Amino acid sequence: MTEYVPVLLFLLVAIGFAGGTIGLSSLIVPRRRNAVKNSSYECGVEPVGDALQRFTVKFYLVAVLFILFDIEAVFLYPWAVTFRRLGLYGLIEMALFIVILFVGYVYLLRKRALEWD
Amino acid sequence: MMPFTMPSLIAVDWWALGAVIALSVGAMLLLVLEFVPAPPASNRGAFVTLLALLAAAGSVLEVRDARRSLFDGMFLHDGFTVFFTVLFCVIGAVAVLQSWDYVKRTRINHGEYYALLLSSTLGMVLMAASNDLITIFLGLELMSLALYVLVGFRRTRLDSSEAAMKYFLLGAFASGFLLYGIALLYGATGTTNLAKVAMFLADSPMIGNPMLIVGGLLLLVGFGFKVAAVPFHMWTPDAYEGAPTTVTGYMSAGAKAAGFAALLRVLLVAFPPLMSEWRPILSWIAALTMTVGNVTALLQTNVKRMLAYSSIAHAGYLLVAVVAGGLDGGSAALFYLAVYSFMNLGAFGVLALLGRGAEERVTIKDLAGLGFRSPMLGLAMTVFMLSLGGVPPTSGFMGKVYLFSVAVKAGLIPLVIVGVLNSVVSVFYYLRVTVAMYMQEPGAEPVEIAWAPSAAIAVVITLALTLWWGVQAQDLLTTAQRSILGLL
Amino acid sequence: MTLALFAAFAALLVGCSLMVILHRNPVASALFLVLAFCSLAGLYLLLHAEFVAMVQVIVYAGAIMVLFLFVIMYLNLRHDVEQGIAVAVRRGAGWILGILLLAETVAFFKGRWAEGPVSAPDLAPVAGNTQAIGQVLYTRYLFPFEITSVLLLVAMVGAVVIAKGRGPGLHPAAPAADAAADAKAAAPDHAGGEA
To answer: What is the ipTM of this complex?
Structure first.
């Protein structure tokens, strides 16, 4: 387990830093509330309605595509740690894998699936 | 450092793998071609698809007598694989011919349509060729994912989207069952290779072991969904009705055959030691499936929906063959699958011709008088209906005769009685279509027939096969028997 | 040390899971789920399943949670307070199913499970679990691995076809207008089908 001690330390420092800053600022912050301050900030525009808006479904496409490429990354990870042993053979098979997905990527680009409009 | 062996790519039989390569390259080519401008009336997509299917079938036929085990026994090239690969490619080609004009008429002529068609064919080929639960699952997912999208391809129609939604939710559920079953089987036996599972079961009889039983049951549930067996058939009528008619025909033939191919391989290769466990379960499912499918089909007025229930009933007949098992049961199943695929494809092909533009007119009333308005189409539909009902001299009759005689030989008398009674019931609703075509006056607004040369070719092909196998069944039968031989 | 870590991760996991179903704000529930996934990853690490832990964080805490959050945001959050008989029935069913599941688990643990294969599959002894997976995945499982890429490709195409519509430059209209267009397009067809 000793190889995880740095991870544990890192975790502790992260929690300490996050907790510390929030705690400290809540201790020393001046509290002066008014209506304007409590309203949500919309780039200086008068806020309309509340933040609980429904998103349009086209964002969902982005999320789904993110998952797909995320899975590609998962496959790259064990390949990266065994790459030296697999050699040229591993390179070819991973190239095939990525080329197939690259076709999908080109398709997405040309379909403007990744563009905001 | 411990050396480990790399599978040698040189030793791979590229002909045997040709179908997989041709189909996946074809699908990718279609996606890329999407962005090369073409005239709006172009049939480029259909051409490329036909070529890919032709190449795939040609490639496996090139080495049809060879027996190869590729990738550590995951991909088997044997008679069974060749039979189903060719079957799927021909089913795909007929579906392309039917879609040729249909997709233009209904304004769904996009490159993705054919790309997805090829991908699902690839999935089916993998399901039939896999000798490993992992690749079976991947093939099944590949086929299903493409089919979910194809079912919902008419995006502007609510019923198409609804059908895709239902099919997807239930299909994903079924995939979950299947994967869980695979995981449990792996846990119990330590391998996903079907042959090794069989070896393990023969070595250490773990009959009655809960993990194995639950895993096997979940596997049956998963396959039950895919072949639309009762009680896992709920998605079928909606998905079949909402899908574009050509897609319905394609999935009713291809997806069912693929489901049965995988089921046959799993049951006949991995689970003969557990035969006494799965036979009673499958017998009950078969009886239920035949009965529920046929009785519900009696009540339908939409022909697509009626054929959906009829396809459920046919899954029941096929399950009888699976229960019979062995060389005879297996070859009866293969024979029946080939026969069923083409008569069903033909029936949906005729339905795909009806209607103007994107309208869909597939109720029994719409068919009224069709026999006189278009004798050729009426005759073809009559033959398909008679064949589905199992009336001589059609291929459906030969299929049923062979299937039930094999079941009698295997001692499944109660199942055969249920099956024959059901066949009699089924003739009623198939004849309703014929009666409507020849004995009823067309309605106030008779349905328009959208003739197209390619669709006519598809009708002729399916009609010819249905009649040919009705009188000359021997060749197909011998092929089916030879194909199943490698499994046992 | 391991036991203490296990206790900590397990307690965090149970606590977070409870918060997922008990918190009133669905977004906060989703964030608790992220924490639950991370503590599960910690448990995997304790079992020396480094690769599974990594996948747990990347895929579940990363991608799947993004999907969850998106789904929450598509819903109409203002109408989430449900009352009446339906909720009571659902709650009752939930309790019954939960108790059944518990009974099942107890029965399974008491019963005789499969002993499994006699020996674990042979693997070359390597530095880590991830490396072992890599060695098997890219040699013995080469074929399924390549098929996976085709599967991902089909999923991409499917997502675009379903969500994006057709042709470059052709964008779907706003949801409301889209639904209206759907209804309009579907109506004549239905009428035609039943005529």
So the answer is: 0.91
- 8 Å CB contact between C29 and C19: yes
Contact pairs from chain A to chain C, CB under 8 Å: 139
Tell me the residue type at B222: G
Judge whether residue C176 has pLDDT over 50: no
**What average pLDDT does chain C have?**
76
Determine, for residues A78 and C159 on separate chains, whether the beta-carbon distance falls below 8 Å.
Answer: no
Q: Is the pLDDT of residue B353 over 80?
A: yes
B242 is a domain residue: yes
Which of A64, A103, A108, A116 is best to mutate for the C interface (most C CBs within 10 A)?
A: A64
Asked, for residue B455, whether it belongs to a domain, the answer is: yes
CB proximity A86 to B under 8 Å? yes
What's phi and psi for B302, nearest 5 deg? Answer: -85, 125
All structural domains of chain A with their residue ranges = 2-110
pLDDT at res. B401? 94
Compute the average pLDDT of residues B125-148: 95
Task: Give the integer Cα–Cα distance in Å for B387 and B380.
Answer: 11
Q: Hey, of A1, A58, A65, A67, which one would you mutate to test binding to chain C, going by the most C CBs within 10 A of its CB?
A: A67
Which residue is closest to A106 within chain B, CA to CA? B32
> Within a domain: residue C24?
yes
Instruction: State the pLDDT at residue B345.
Output: 95
Which positions in chain B touch C155 (Cβ < 8 Å)?
145
Q: Which of C75, C90, C112 is the last residue of a domain?
A: C75
Q: CATH number of the domain that C17 lies in?
A: 1.20.120.1200
Beta bridge partners of B193: B132
Segments forming the whole domain that contains residue B234: 18-485
Task: Write the pLDDT tens digit of every residue in B305-330.
Answer: 999 999 999 999 999 999 998 889 99
- Are C192 and B152 in contact (CB < 8 Å)? no
In this complex, the residue of B6, B9, B34 whose CB is nearest that of residue A107 is: B34
Q: Which residue of C has its CA nearest to B200?
A: C117
- Of residues C71 and B49, more confidently modeled: B49
Are C116 and B362 a contacting pair at CB < 8 A? Answer: no
Peptide bond into B393 cis (omega under 30): yes
Domain A2-110 has CATH 1.10.3720.10: no
Range of the domain at C55: 1-75
Instruction: Give me the number of domains chain C comprises.
Output: 2
If phi > 0 it is left, if psi is from -120 to 50 it is alpha, else beta; for residue C48 that is left
Contact between residue B340 and residue B346 where contact means Cβ atoms under 8 Å apart: no
CB atoms inside a 10 Å sphere around CB A39? 10
- C-beta separation of B341 from B402 below 8 A: no
* Per-residue pLDDT band at C111 (split at 50, 70, 90): low
Give domain status of residue C129, yes or no.
no
Residue C77: CB atoms within 10 Å: 16
Using the predicted structure, report yes or no on whether residue B149 has a pLDDT greater than 80: yes
Domain annotation covers residue B8: no
Q: Do A104 and B31 touch (CB under 8 A)?
A: yes
Q: Name which of C151, C168, C181 is nearest B156 (Cβ-Cβ).
A: C181
The answer to the question of residue B136 being in a domain is yes
C174 touches chain A (CB under 8 A): yes
* pLDDT band for position C191 (cuts 50, 70, 90): very low
Q: Do B211 and C154 touch (CB under 8 A)?
A: no
Please tell me the total count of domains within chain B: 1
